[in-house]
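Entry details:
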Amino acid sequence: MRIDLHTHSTASDGTDSPAELVRNAAAAGLDVVALTDHDTTRGHAEAIAALPAGLTLVTGAELSCRMDGIGLHMLAYLFDPEEPTLLAERELVRDDRVPRARGMVSRLQELGVPVTWEQVARIAGDGSVGRPHIAEALVELGVVRDVSGAFTPEWLADGGRAYVEKHELDALEAIRLVKAAGGVTVFAHPLAVKRGQVLSEASLARLADAGLDGVEVDHMDHDEATRARLRGLAKELGLLTTGSSDYHGSRKTCRPGEYTTDPEIYGEITRRAAGAFPVPGAGGAF
């Protein structure tokens, strides 16, 4: 089995529609794909309707969190999307995205970059506007070479010159809320230092004590030494280890299934989940 547990669609900051995403996942030879858009489950219905036979969809979301003053992303799988407390928190995060993005556009303008809100809104379309859309605007303007080049202290990285904070869930509270909604939590790209500050090992241990289920180890932003270190930490802390592409369509260079999760780990994630079940494809509409 080939299992990719971290992908994005146009419901947040990917360039594939949810239907296109599941079709591309099937074409890439995946057996299981998770749709984990940022702080939203809005793309799930379309993905399920288009799900090809032979491909199973894991519903999820990538939650914006903060701990020890550091922003982080928490992958939440197979939770009840209508559980009211977690739903309200996701809506708070989403509602803060537009004023935050407008604030970053203003800061860029103050730095002499001729970016406009209209340009960013066009790029975001119907998705939840975020830094990747602003990064793409910088690419269009020739300010940076690619989207990754915008995520630096000079521009949009955490604490960068144009960075603006947004509402984020406390990471420990996020674990509690996802658990209460029947879901499973995996810390996304926890040692991706190119993105900014990362949590200490002591903080990771606190997350594990709070009920964190796993850590994303095999990821494009982790080199081999980092993956080895994470596997060691996960073993010490009793955490599951996953691998994922973090596919965003054409917005990033990674492809579906570039990194995958062991079937036994996937089985354990599904066993722990009580809020929703993986959806087997029945031959969706093309």
User: Anything to note?
Assistant: The first strand starts at residue 3 and ends at 7. The chain has a mean pLDDT of 95. The radius of gyration is 18 Å. Residues 182 and 274 are 4 Å apart (CA to CA).
